[in-house]
Specification:
This protein is α/β, with parallel strands linked by helices. Helices cover 48% and strands 21% of the residues. Strands 7-8-6-11-12-13 form a six-stranded mixed sheet, with helices on both faces. Strand 1, helix 1 and strand 2 form a beta-alpha-beta unit.
Length: 302
């Protein structure tokens, strides 16, 4: 984990930097609170150790500035000071510091308190991951994917660039559950997500839209290239084999609908609806195939 140290005493700053670097942490050290604040404007470092008394911006001012900022993630703050009165400790904590060490501090105590802060930040990261990912497949959930679509739609509008999406649904998914059990259905969903991840491009975003439906967002991609990506998904899933607990193998297919916009000038809901309608048209026409929303025709597989 990266740690930012703000300490105006050269010897103390160097001591902290060397000690934490030797423990395997990535350390940046600056000599006052203003430099630390400037650093945080360009890179959000989530762990900050700051001295209280410094020129320009004091440690206490730095803590208050960080707490009043709109950083995307929580910043864990450890305040170091020679002030050891109860009132000073309370003042530091009320300003927003998470922990407080009085100089001269014990090295082992600092490392222990640092570990506590890192565990708290790691827990926050895990909770954030859980909030935006589907619990079964690990893909983006519907809310997170919708937010990603909004970002890419705005980019497409600014850059006048194309954007496409693929909606796909597992064919006869209910019969998989009915015949082999819901555990097999869950494995089919997970296998589908794995195949999609293996065959997507680096900048594509994939999420579970709901039930057995998946949505793939393709930034800076027109209909022709989107159709190529969709065919790669279709053929890879059709070729995959789902292994059941009793050793049996099951194959299944997906139906896909593709929609596209050239410059972002379309409502997000309309673009999603086009992909969804194209997908259901593919199902109606026989499944295991792709329908392109703007051309309204089906490309029959195999």
């Amino acid at each position: 984990m990266k740690i930012l140290i703000a300490e105006d005493d050269l010897v103390q700053r160097r001591f902290l930097q060397v000690m934490l670097s030797r423990s395997g942490r990535d350390v940046i050290a600056v000599s006052d609170g203003q430099q630390a604040w400037d650093m945080l404007q360009t890179e959000h470092i989530r762990m900050v150790i700051t001295d209280w008394i410094m020129p320009e911006v004091s440690g206490l001012e730095l803590v208050r500035k960080i707490r009043s900022s709109a950083f995307p993630n929580y910043t864990y703050l450890i305040l170091l000071t020679s002030k050891d009165t109860r009132n000073s400790i309370v003042e530091g904590l009320e300003a927003g510091a998470d922990d407080y060490l009085t100089k001269p501090f014990d090295k082992d105590e600092l490392m222990a308190r640092l570990s506590i802060g890192e565990r708290i930040l790691e827990l926050e990261t895990r909770l954030q991951e859980m909030a935006i990912h589907d619990s079964l497949t690990g893909l983006l959930n519907r809310r997170a994917l919708y937010a990603k679509i909004q970002v890419e739609m705005n980019r497409a509008t600014r850059e006048l660039s194309p954007m496409s999406m693929i909606m796909l649904d597992i064919d006869h998914f209910k019969s998989i559950n009915d015949r082999y059990g819901h555990q097999a259905g869950d494995k089919a969903l997970c296998m589908t997500s794995e195949v999609l991840l293996q065959n997507k491009r680096a900048y594509d975003a994939i999420g579970r839209w709901g039930g057995e439906e998946f949505l793939v967002l393709l930034p800076r991609t027109g209909m022709t290239d989107a159709r190529t990506v969709a065919e790669r998904f279709r053929s890879a899933i059709a070729s995959a084999r789902l292994s059941l607990a009793d050793g049996r193998g099951v194959r299944f297919t997906v139906s896909l609908g593709v929609s596209s916009v050239m410059d972002g000038h379309i409502d997000i809901e309309a673009l999603i609806h086009q992909a969804d309608a194209a997908m259901y048209l593919a199902k109606h026409q026989g499944r295991n195939r792709i329908c392109l929303a703007d051309e309204n025709f089906l490309n029959k597989s195999g």
